[in-house]
Write a structure and sequence with these properties.
heterodimer, A: 207 residues, mainly alpha, 2 domains, 7 helices, 8% strand, B: 569 residues, two-stranded antiparallel ribbon, two-stranded antiparallel sheet, 4 strands, 2% strand, Potassium-transporting ATPase subunit KdpC (chain A)
Chain lengths: 207, 569
């Protein structure tokens, strides 16, 4: 038994060095050299300034921006504290929130039914995408806030929509940050990011 | 449900089987100690490890020596991990200056990773230093998986050998599983995950200015190196709190397909390796058919339930054809989320790409049931194979009772001793799940952790102990489990589910390896045809149903009925 214990302890030590230090260090070195952008978090820059990650959702509340799904990560899109709501299908808290958000969004958009992702939170709270249907629902509001034709907004959304991978995997999706960068490039917003004439404090997070 | 959704599911499963066949052949060579294409590179490394540790790989152990070696190795692993977590505050590679973990959280987490459960009572990005993630958690991701593979190989040898005393050398089997199987696959697929967008850096975070003028802090770290083995080793413990739902852990639909493939491939290959090692590939096909049949059924039920949505969603004005997207990511959608949920629990993985606690009652019952069935579809690496072989032993016994003959499996007579040990092993799961659940259901210290009321709250309790005892690690996340009661009892359930199962299983191996292998006679019940497939699937369902149906009726089934009646809690 003593030899077993010695073998166990020594082997554990060697394997800890190999798997816990050498292996991650080698992976980091290779990834940093070959795939520096992805290894560093797929950051997106504008005018030399990092404005987000193409993979991580961020909050948008101004009407001139495409808005993401509601988020349960921290106080919303906190990328250092990912989380879903974990509320169950018979949760009264969830039912109340959905009812209030649904009514507000139906009133703001005039839609009779809403896309399945429009008022539900994602699993991570950092979902970078919305469904094409939810993006379409927001076209009129964005066009009005920015004073540009609705078809122009649709074009920018279509350019930043990804289909199913290989026509098979996953679901079609619109990257919110990419659309909003394209919107800003197309019709620059004044300093602070608020389109002119639109109250930025309007509590319309889901409209 | 859509055609393209089902097509996606079937294509991923086909890709698993296609690769598992050659990988199984390779693994059967590795564990028969034959030369492989990796031997020139890894052989010297392997021999160096043995020399330093004083291990003679040619000196085989009996079942007891093998089991004791495994226990010593796992005890040492537990101790090292516990100390790393307790003292991470004063150890290097801690850029966020996280403090050491509390004793009960460190106990729970160390047990969790050593037992291949990877239950997480903590949020990764807000709790763990880089050193803890790498030298602690990543290492046990490898070693708990390699331990499982070694144990399965020992049981398979017990069937393959005739009148022998030994089942192999634990340290050699474990080292080979790590070096030849897990490490190469992890490096290759881990780099593929970086290419798809998973970070791999020693930086703790990046801060960016959002378009609306706010600040966003993106938690980073050595993510890819951990999550590659987390999936290949069916561990499931994520780098981030949201696990594989987090866009950094699982950035694209393609990375999602890859992670599902990673979860399934080693366990599936082990079944093929089993067929080769016992010299009858038809036996492997029969076992795999049962696994595939039940797993695809589970995927189908979950997919159907999630696509059906809930009355609460419909009442809020959501398009009923969109299904239940609460807790799910757009890039995966319903099909890939349902498939992931069934696969992660048919295995003992426990990673999640959607929040199981927000599934519909029936959709959330599927992962719970798949764990209760013993996580043998195809199960955790190693643990799935030895799990289903124990049930196969029970199945041939039942068949033997029906026709009044001494049962045999793979040429070995199944007698009283094997049956006693098999039943002992089977009873661990209901004892741990139902025992701890019933106490928690009335204990205020336990109930204060619940995040949902009504039957869903009871489901949270069941799911927690089911996940722990089954060494799965997924959760109905509404439960706040980071408290002394939950951390301690869940830790105990994990230990029972792992080691109290392994010891009787290894006793079966010890008993079988000594028996002479009999040639099939006219009275032998063939264990490779559709009849056996049906019998084995039936036994799995009957055993699971008898043990857990009453519990399920009070939890998810009651919730489904109440939900359809429009009730909320």
């Amino acid at each position: 038994m003593l030899s077993q214990i010695r073998a166990a302890a020594t082997l554990l030590g060697i394997l800890t060095v190999l798997l816990g230090l050498l292996y991650p260090a080698a992976m980091t070195a290779i990834a940093g050299a070959v795939l520096p952008n992805q290894a560093g978090g797929s950051l997106v820059t504008r005018d030399g300034q990092a404005v987000g990650s193409s993979l991580i959702g961020q909050g948008f509340s101004q009407p001139g921006y495409l808005q993401p799904r509601p988020s349960a990560a921290g106080n919303g899109y906190d990328a250092s504290a990912s989380s879903g709501t974990n509320l169950g299908p018979t949760s009264a808290k969830l039912a109340e929130r959905l009812k209030a958000d649904g009514e507000a969004m139906k009133a703001a958009t005039g839609a009779a039914t809403l896309p399945a992702d429009a008022i539900t939170t994602s699993g991570s709270g950092l979902d970078p995408d919305v469904s094409p249907a939810f993006a379409e629902l927001q076209v009129a509001r964005i066009a009005q806030a920015r004073g540009i034709p609705a078809d122009e907004v649709r074009r920018l959304i279509a350019e930043n929509t990804a289909g199913r991978t290989l026509g098979l995997l996953g679901e079609p999706r619109v990257n919110v940050l990419a659309v909003n960068l394209a919107l800003d490039a197309n019709s620059p917003a004044p300093a602070g990011g608020a389109p002119a004439g639109v109250p930025t404090a309007a509590a319309q997070p889901t409209g | 449900m859509t055609v393209v959704g089902w097509l996606q599911i079937l294509v991923i499963l086909a890709a698993v089987v296609a690769f598992a066949v050659p990988l199984g052949a390779f693994m059967s060579k590795v564990f028969a100690n034959e030369r492989t294409f990796l031997t020139p590179v890894l052989g010297p490394v392997e021999r160096g490890f043995y020399r330093v540790s004083g291990i003679d790989p040619a000196r085989e152990q009996g079942w007891l020596g093998y089991t004791l070696g495994m226990l010593a190795f796992n005890a040492a692993g537990f101790l090292l991990l516990y100390l790393l977590l307790r003292f991470q505050g004063v150890l290097p590679l801690n850029p966020q200056s996280f403090p050491g973990l509390s004793p009960h959280l460190a106990f729970n987490t160390a047990v969790s990773f050593v037992t291949n459960t990877n239950w997480q009572s903590y949020g990764g990005e807000t709790t763990m230093s880089h050193l803890s993630q790498m030298a602690g958690l990543t290492v046990q991701n490898f070693l708990s998986a390699a331990t499982g593979i070694a144990l399965a190989v020992a049981l398979v040898r017990a069937f393959a050998r005739s009148g022998a005393k030994t089942v192999g050398n634990f340290f050699a089997d474990m080292t080979r599983a790590t070096l030849y199987v897990l490490l190469p696959l992890t490096i290759l697929t881990g780099l593929a995950q970086v290419a798809m967008g998973t970070p791999q850096t020693f930086e703790a975070s990046a801060t960016v200015q959002t378009l609306e003028g706010g600040e966003q802090t993106l938690a980073l770290g050595p993510v890819a190196s951990q999550i590659a083995i987390k999936q290949l080793g069916t561990n499931g413990g994520g780098f981030y709190n949201a696990n594989a739902a987090h866009p950094y852990e699982n950035p694209t639909p393609l990375s999602n397909a890859l992670t599902i493939w990673q979860m399934l491939v080693v366990s599936t290959a082990l079944v093929f390796a089993f067929g080769r090692l016992v010299g009858d590939r038809r036996q492997a096909v029969a076992i795999l058919s049962v696994m595939g049949l039940l797993l695809v059924t589970g995927i189908g039920i979950a997919y159907w339930a999630e696509a059906a949505g809930t009355p609460v969603l419909a009442a809020a004005g959501l398009d009923p054809t969109g299904g239940n997207m609460e807790g799910k990511e757009i890039r995966f959608g319903l099909a890939a989320s349902s498939m992931f949920a069934a696969v992660t629990t048919g295995l003992s993985d426990g990673a999640v790409n959607a929040m199981h606690g927000s599934f519909t009652p029936i959709g959330g019952m599927v992962p719970m049931v798949l764990i209760m069935l013993g996580e043998i579809l195809p199960g955790g690496v190693g643990s799935g194979l030895y799990g289903i072989l124990v049930i196969a032993i029970i199945s041939v016994f039942v068949a033997g009772l029906m026709v009044g003959r001494t049962p045999e499996y793979l040429g070995k007579k199944i007698e009283a001793k094997e049956m006693k040990m098999a039943i002992l092993a089977i009873l661990i799961l209901p004892t741990a799940i139902l025992g701890f659940s019933s106490v928690s259901a009335v204990l205020p210290a336990a109930l204060s952790g619940l995040g949902n009321a009504g039957p869903h709250g009871l489901s949270e309790i069941y799911y927690a102990y089911t996940s722990a005892a089954g060494n799965n690690g997924s959760a109905f996340g509404g439960l706040s489990a980071n408290s002394p009661w939950w951390n301690t009892t869940l830790g105990l359930a994990m230990l029972l589910g792992r080691f109290a199962y392994i010891v009787p299983m290894m006793a079966i191996a010890g008993s079988l390896v000594a028996k002479t292998k009999l040639a099939p006679s006219s009275g032998t019940f063939p264990t490779h045809g559709p009849l056996f497939v049906g019998l084995l699937a039936g036994i799995i369902l009957i055993l699971g149903g008898l043990q857990f149906f009453p519990a399920l009726a009070l939890g998810p089934i009651a919730e489904q009925v109440q939900m359809l009646a429009g009730k909320t809690f």
